[in-house]
Amino acid sequence: MAAVQVTETLPRHVAIIMDGNGRWARKRHLPRQAGHVAGVNAVREVVRAAIDMGLEALTLYAFSSENWKRPAIEVGALMGLFRLYFRSDMNELIEKGTRVRIIGNRTRVDPDIRAMIEDSEKRSTGNCGLNLTFAFDYGGQEEIAAAARELARAAMEGRLDPETITPELMSSRMFTAGLPEPDFLIRTSGERRLSNFLLWQSAYAELLFVDTLWPDFGREQFLEALKQFTKRERRFGALPEAVA
Ligand code: IPE
Ligand code: IPE
Ligand code: MG
After folding, report:
1. Phi-psi category of 154—alpha, beta or left, where left has phi over 0 and alpha has psi -120 to 50?
2. Rounded-to-integer distance, Cα 106 and Cα 136, Å
3. Domains in the chain, please, with CATH?
4. 12 Cα to the center of ligand 2, angstroms
5. d(CA 33, CA 237)
6. Which residues are catalytic?
7. Spatial distance between the Cα atoms of 205 and 191, rounded to a whole number of angstroms
8. pLDDT (tens digit, 9 = 90+) per residue, 10-31?
9. Are 127 and 98 in contact (CB under 8 A)?
10. How close is the Cα of 164 to the center of ligand 1, in Å?
11. Does the model's pTM come out above 0.90?
C-alpha cells in the first residue's frame, strides 16, 4: 500500500467534539441546558447516519474532565441527559449490533451512571456493528499519564523491559485499544482547538472545524463533512506519488 493516499473512501473512525450547545441556547434566549437537550437530538441523528453508512467507529466527546468546572446545575443537567439518553436509546442501538464503549475516568461519576455504562458495554461486547464510543469525564492528558503510570509500575516490578515501550504498546494501553486510530476529527461551533480530546490517538487524524453549532449539526452536515474528508490527501510524512 502506498504511504500517500487520496482518500476516496470513508474514514474508518470519526471522532467529534460536539461543541456549541451553550451558544445555540443563548441565541434563543434559553438557558444553556436547553442547548444540551437539543444537542442530544443531534447525537441521535449522527449516530443513525453512521450506522446507515456502515461506519466502523464513531467517538463522541460528551463531557471533558475539565467540564466539572462548570456550575453544578449545568453539570447536573449534563449527567441527567447522559442517563436519559442511555436509558432511552441504548437497548435499540445494542439490538441493532452497536458496540458501546465509554472512555474516561469512571470513578468520579455517580454509581448509577457507572453501573449503566458497564451494563451497556457488557451487553454489547459481542456486537460487530458500529463501534460507538462516548468520551465522558475524559481527558487526553490524563489518559496518557495513566498509561505511563501503568507501564512504570510494570517496569518497577520487573514485568516490563522499558526498551520494549513502543508507540504500539502505548496505544494498547489507551482507552481506545482495539479501535482503529481516528482518521477524521470534526469540531463544531467554530472553535479551533482539541480541548484535551484524543491527543495520543489523533496524531495523523484529518481535522475539520465547522462553524455549525452542535444542535444544528445533523445528517446533512455530517455527510458534507465526510465529503470533505474524501478530498483530503493523507501523506503520513511521505511525499505525494507525483513528486516521489
Ligand atoms: C458542548 O457545548 C457540550 C459540552 C461541552 C458538554 P458547550 O456547552 O461547550 O457550548 P458552548 O461552547 O458554551 O457554546
Ligand atoms: C470540549 O468542549 C468538551 C466537549 C465538547 C465535551 P468545551 O466547550 O468544554 O471546550 P473549551 O472549554 O471551549 O476548550
Ligand atoms: Mg464549548
Report:
1. alpha
2. 8
3. 5-221+229-234 (3.40.1180.10)
4. 24
5. 43
6. 19, 67
7. 17
8. 999 999 999 999 999 999 999 9
9. yes
10. 40
11. yes
